[in-house]
Design a protein that fits this description.
Pfam families: NifU_N. This protein is of the alpha+beta class. It contains 4 helices and 4 strands. It has a 4-stranded antiparallel beta sheet with strand order 1-2-3-4. Helix 2 packs parallel to helix 4. The protein is globular and about 50 Å long.
C-alpha cells in the first residue's frame, strides 16, 4: 500500500477512536484510579481499572486532550482488557519502544494501535500518545504494591 494511503488509513483510525472513543467513562467498581496530565500540552487522563487475580478485568478513561492522546487511551483500554497485568505492562513497554522509533516484534498484534506508529516522527507528540499508557503502568504498579 503506498505511504500516502497508509497515512490516510492511520489518520482515519486515530480520528475514529477520538470521535468514538471506546471504554469512555468511569468504572464504578474499580480498584485502581489514576489521574495524570501532560503539562506541556494540557492533556489530562482519568483512568479507572478493575484488576482481580492479576487480570485487568475492565478499563475505562475520561479526559481532555488532543486527538492523539484520547485515541491512544481508547486503543489502550481495548487491548489491556482481560489481559494479565504482566502482558498489559509488556504492551506499554512495546508501545513506548514504538514511540521511540524502535522496531517491535512483528508477531505482536497491536491492532488499531499500529496507527499511532507515525507519532514517532513528531517528538513533541510522543508524550500525548504515551500519557494513558504511563497512567496504566503507574496504576498497575501501585495496585501490585498494595496487594502485597
Amino acid at each position: 500500500m503506498p505511504t500516502n494511503n497508509l497515512d490516510q488509513l492511520y489518520r482515519s483510525v486515530i480520528m475514529d477512536h477520538y470521535k468514538n472513543p471506546r471504554n469512555k467513562g468511569v468504572l464504578e467498581e474499580n480498584n485502581v484510579t489514576i489521574d495524570m496530565n501532560n503539562p506541556t500540552c494540557g492533556d489530562v487522563i482519568h483512568l479507572t481499572l478493575k484488576v482481580e487475580d492479576g487480570i485487568v478485568q475492565d478499563a475505562k478513561f475520561e479526559g481532555e486532550g488532543c486527538s492523539i492522546s484520547m485515541a491512544s487511551a481508547s486503543m489502550m483500554t481495548q487491548i489491556i482488557k482481560n489481559k494479565d497485568v504482566d502482558t498489559a505492562v509488556k504492551y506499554a513497554h512495546l508501545f513506548s519502544d514504538m514511540m521511540l522509533g524502535k522496531e517491535i516484534d512483528d508477531s505482536i498484534d497491536f491492532g488499531d494501535i499500529e496507527a499511532l506508529s507515525g507519532v514517532a516522527k513528531f517528538p513533541a507528540r510522543i508524550k500525548c500518545a504515551t500519557l494513558a499508557w504511563k497512567a496504566m503502568e503507574k496504576g498497575i504498579g501501585e495496585e501490585s504494591e498494595s496487594a502485597q
